[in-house]
UniProtKB/TrEMBL annotation:
Keyword Zinc: no
Top-rank taxon: Eukaryota
Protein name listed in UniProt: Protein kinase domain
InterPro entries assigned to the protein according to its UniProt record, in alphabetical order: Prot_kinase_dom (IPR000719), WAK-like (IPR045274)
Pfam families (alphabetical): Pkinase
Keywords per UniProt: ATP-binding, Kinase, Nucleotide-binding, Transferase
Amino acid sequence: MDWWKKNMSRAVVKKERLARGQRRGEMFLKELIQCCDGKTNPIKFFSADQILKATERYFCKCNILERSQNVCECSRISELVFQGKWYSGTLDSRRMIIVKKMLGRSPNPPRDICSGPPKDIAISSMVSGHKNFMKLVGCCLEFEYPVLVYYGKEKQYSPIDLKVVVSWRRRMKIAEEVATALAYLHNAFPRPFVYRNMGFKNILLDEDGVAKLIDLSYCVSIPKGETFVKLTWAGRDYDYMDDNYLFNKVVSEKTDAFGFGIFMQKLLTGEERFDELCGWKNWRGKNKVPKWLSKSMGEGRMDEIIDPNMLKKMDEVSEEERCLMEVFLNLSERCIGLRGEVPNMVQVAKELKRSRKTASSSSGETRI
């Protein structure tokens, strides 16, 4: 009798998973058609059993371990706990994969806010071949929270920690790679995609230090013939949001340029120093946010605004490095609209690449 009940329970669970996967599959196809203009992208749909087998069933067991020990002993990349939870596994006993379990998504979000997993999967499949995005294999829609499957290696990816990434040249490299990823979203497709989700939490570094932009669920496309789109809801990452986006809910390519400009300033100053310099702590969480005023960050006081973690590793800031930092800061202020016309992300990526080449050639290095 117990055996019969156990098998019936398994059958019910499997039936529910299949029904859930079918419903979400329909949502995904609609999103794919809208995002990709009907073009197909190679993507594999995994069953729940395949995911459990690939992760040696730890995918489900991890939650119990984490609650009791605050450490996921079975997951090899348990430090990646933001924007969902991440697990390593092996596909067909050969290829290493990374499984991302998406958490905290509303099942029925407003269409222009965040379409959640369907949009993330659809756009990830479009950008998967670019070096600054993760290589998507497929997805599984049968679990309560959908999962995305990427190619990878154990311990390959890590979040950006400015206490670890202390080299100025490494930070310049990260900035260039993130700018390149945003430029790709803006220009590689018939309609530009605006990322509007900038932040350290959405960038991973692989074992070679290459930056990867993740979580594409907040992307919105600009209609053909238009330069912006108006939404019904802006978001809550105030420090990365320009006034037009925050107050008027207007999204354009300049939305990403602004967010990237703030990201650049945080790379230069460190997040804590950035908060102090901009007075962010004084009005965080308030409904009315003042315009950004970062002109005082430069003006010959570079030693005062550099991230202390980075400064500790530099015996002294050379005149050449100081000039590169000034150029970096100037470009960030152009991105946030404080110095003339806001550049597009292609221009930003080119200027950052040029600065990195200058730094590399002057030091006699071929790679930073």
